[in-house]
Amino acid sequence: xxxxxxxxxxxxxxxxxxxxxxxxxxxxxxxxxxxxxxxxxxxxxxxxxxxxxxxxxxxxxxxxxxxxxxxxxxxxxxxxxxxxxxxxxxxxxxxxxxxxxxxxxxxxxxxxxxxxxxxxxxxxxxxxxxxxxxxxxxxxxxxxxxxxxxxxxxxxxxxxxxxxxxxxxxxxxxxxxxxxxxxxxxxxxxxxxxxxxxxxxxxxxxxxxxxxxxxxxxxxxxxxxxxxxxxxxxxxxxxxxxxxxxxxxxxxxxxxxxxxxxxxxxxxxxxxxxxxxxxxxxxxxxxxxxxxxxxxxxxxxxxxxxxxxxxxxxxxxxxxxxxxxxxxxxxxxxxxxxxxxxxxxxxxxxxxxxxxxxxxxxxxxxxxxxxxxxxxxxxxxxxxxxxxxxxxxxxxxxxxxxxxxxxxxxxxxxxxxxxxxxxxxxxxxxxxxxxxxxxxxxxxxxxxxxxxxxxxxxxxxxxxx
Length: 465
What we know:
Helix content is about 60%, strand content about 0%. It contains 23 helices and two strands. It has a two-stranded antiparallel ribbon with strand order 1-2. The longest helix is centred in the first third of the chain and has 25 residues, at about 1-25. The chain is elongated, with a radius of gyration of 31 Å.
């Protein structure tokens, strides 16, 4: 029965294509019947097997109907474009057939959603060179115009989610195309310098949905990843790092928006989902920190690193964004997120191991430092010229002594309610530790020195009568 249905479907696709192909030569098909035939064909294409039936002639026939008219009201053109988009999505081999006939250069601004989707699909599994579209058909300008139009509408009516009757779908497809083009054609990135501003307008104006990391917000973030955020803005000695992303009037505005999005995400999305959705946002924040003026870096540090007030408890115990990030930096179910956050916190600690430990405590810092072969600072170290007490940097903040492991202020730590160990208990504990160290040393997996053995070698061991 299934085989009969598949054969009937193949026959129906062949019949519909035959009607459309004959009409490309005779042009006798009434508009209504042409539309009905295309609609029937679109509803028939539901699997990769269906799409594979479109040989070169079938793709060429659909392209004829997709691009024959520039009339905005031509519904048949849009339906043909939908057929093409479905075919290219379902069967990658048809993409090369599409570009071999020169169809990819017939871009149409009137059908932003469908043309962006088709061009996006053509960035995969084809030999098409998009440089032709950049040079001969102003592809960068058309992408800029589409994004700018959306930004202008939102600027006029911020309460509106999208001016398009199709919602965010056209903008989403355009942003996906922009990301792929800047990834595969990095020499074309300067062509999109002016597009950064409208992207930022949308990013700052768009209503944050639930969950927050969804289209088109994720595509806006992705689009910024490859762009030159310092752009071609004039750079004076005084404002060398101010640009459309760091406007001189308020250089923190875009960073604050990204941090707000991050704060919302880590509080409302499960760790497993953050593993796949939050990495681009964290990557963008890391990238912007490297580019940011000093005032913006200071703002990011004060917002993302634990404050002095949080040190009344062990770090990571409060409900602040900094504590949420610290807890995620040790996540067992999201290794990429864990690595991304730890790297970010290390970078905003000026990539200095001592500052990193001081900011987040040994407990959160040690794992990252060891896996990246970075020396874990000793709280008794001094700088080479002994002019700076590095240990003091680890154990003291604003004149208050802190626990370098937990980051908590010593004067806020709870008192130990237990009684002091007797001399006999101390002796038994020392013997137990001695045996444990000897066993660990015998495994040869870890190079350790028994503290008792070290004390004897250094002459610090004394016999007591």
